[in-house]
Each structure stands twice: as C-alpha cells, then as structure tokens.
Design goal:
alpha/beta, nine-stranded mixed beta sheet, 24% strand
C-alpha cells in the first residue's frame, strides 16, 4: 500500500485530494489498471499517457500523476502534478525501495552476458531465497522502477539488470535503486559508437559500484582490464571472478561437447572446488556461471 501524502512528498508534487488515500500499486499502462492503483501518465515520442487518464480512472485508478492539466477529473481522484512524470515514477520507486529494509538489491551490468547472468543468478538464489528479477530487458529508466515496484514485502533478494547508452545513466539508475552489491560481467565494444573507447565504456559500467555501501560487494571480471579498474572506485569489498590465477573464483578444466560445457570452479582462498555442468556452449557461459557462484558465495546472501 502507498499512502497519498507519502507519495506527494516523495515526488515533491503539487497535490490535490485526500492525503490518507491508499493505493494498491502503481501502473503506467492504462490497459492494465486494477482497482485502487495509481496511474502515472508517461510521455513518449509516439504516445502521451495524459490522454488515457480517463480510461485508467474508469478501470478503477484512485489517483493520477500528471505533468500537464487533464480536464474533467473526478473530484474523488487524487491528482499529483509534477514537472516530469517519468521522474515522478522514479521518485515513487526510490521511495518504495527505501522502505524495503529486509530486501537486498543486487545490480548487474556489462557489455555482454548481463541478462544470462541475471537469469542464472536468480535461479540459483531462488533455491533458498524469495527472489525477483528484472523481466525480459526492462533494464532502463522505465523498466528499473517497474521492477522495484514489483518487489513484495517478503522478497529476500531482487536481482536487477542495468543497461546504459552513455555516461551517467547507470549512476542515475543506482540512485533510484540504491543497490547493496553490484556485478560487472565485462567491458566490450557495445556502444563504442557513442562512448568512443573501451576506457569510456569501462567508466560508464563502473558507475554501478561507485556508491555501494562499505558492507556491500563489487563482483568484478578479473580478466578484463577495464572492469578491474572499477575496483578503485568503490568502498565495497571487491571480489574477482574469471579464468586467471589473479581471480578469487577461478574457472578451469573447461570441456565443451555437443551436449554442453563442464568446468571446475575453485575458490582461491580455501581451495574448495566445485564441478559445474550446464547445457550451454561457450567460454562466455563459463564466466557467467563463475560469477554467479561467486555472487551466491558472497554478495547476495541476506544478513
């Protein structure tokens, strides 16, 4: 439940209505409104949610977030007016995240492999914990708030994917989600046309670890020179995964057949070895599995 007066404060909105009104949830899609929800009228290049406020109310919305006036809104509907409805949506998600004291947020980014790693990590953690994850590729400024607002009070861990198209974008997503720990799968040439160099891509990806808390973890690809540099930008404990001896979790003895891949993952500190078999083919999938094992051992475990 979200109380109107709390959301008005979180969004710094001009508010009209009953401050005690409670909302059962938040939606940006007027077609999927359920009774008691708050509708956020987002604007895009080819749509304007303001045109669907009446439809949302007809389906049971008890409030609307708008940035321009909408005519003939019912008197009993709460109205939050903000300068930017997307920013308002993000502010709601950030406020909700601040109330989730018992949920760990684990953020993942990388040039490649972030979606596969997200799915793999969430599946591993779900064997013991109540886990949610970013659905499909909802990893941007709209998708991240959607994921955060999907978290239930009994969720132990939320695994969230963060994409980017330029410098500052992952930083902005982290300010919404306040992740406890973060992982960088790798730095490659994706977005080279925008950022110009792997060095800049590495800087953009490293934004995911900059504001991690001191008791959090930065899980980094120790074999990628641009990812390793992120270690200098965080106060969190740094743990490396990869195939080289310089890593804390090391993949070795890789065998690939037509049926899949196997390898041995060694925890350097203890010498503990784990035999891993999976149906996917390719060295990049060894990295995905190694970093997931690393993460399960360290960063994502609730205290």
């Amino acid at each position: 439940m979200f109380k109107a007066q709390d959301l008005a404060k979180a969004m710094n909105a001009a508010f009209l209505g009953n401050g005690e009104q409670e909302f059962t949830g938040v939606s940006t899609d007027s077609r999927k409104i359920t009774p008691g929800q708050l509708f956020v009228a987002l604007k895009g290049e080819s749509f304007d949610g303001h045109a669907y406020c009446a439809k949302a109310i007809e389906l049971g919305a008890k409030g609307v977030v708008i940035s321009s006036d909408v005519d003939n809104l019912p008197a009993d509907v709460c109205v939050f007016k903000v300068a930017d409805t997307l920013k308002g949506y993000q502010d709601i998600a950030h406020y909700y995240r601040s109330t989730l004291q018992n949920t760990k947020i684990f953020a993942i980014t990388g040039s490649n492999g972030k979606t596969s790693t997200k799915d793999l990590l969430a599946a591993c953690l779900a064997a013991k914990y109540n886990v949610i994850k970013t659905q499909a590729n909802f990893n941007n400024e709209i998708g991240l708030p959607y994921t955060l607002l999907s978290i239930k009070p009994d969720t132990d861990i939320a695994v969230v994917e963060m994409g980017m198209r330029g410098l500052g974008q992952i930083e902005a997503l982290c300010k919404i989600a306040n992740p406890d720990s973060g992982l960088i799968t790798n730095v490659g040439e994706t977005h080279m046309e925008i950022l110009g160099s792997k060095e800049n891509i590495g800087k953009a990806k490293s934004e995911i670890v900059v504001d991690l808390p001191a008791d959090g973890f930065a899980i980094l690809n120790g074999d990628n020179e641009y990812v390793r540099k992120a270690a200098t930008k965080t106060q969190a404990k740094v743990v490396y995964f990869g195939l080289s001896e310089a890593c804390d979790y090391i993949g070795s003895d890789i065998v690939t057949t037509s049926e899949g891949t196997s390898f041995v993952c060694t925890e350097k500190a203890t010498g503990t070895k784990i035999a891993v078999n999976f149906s996917l083919i390719g060295e990049h999938n060894v990295y995905n599995h190694a970093c997931s094992i690393n993460t399960v051992a360290y960063a994502a475990i609730p205290s």
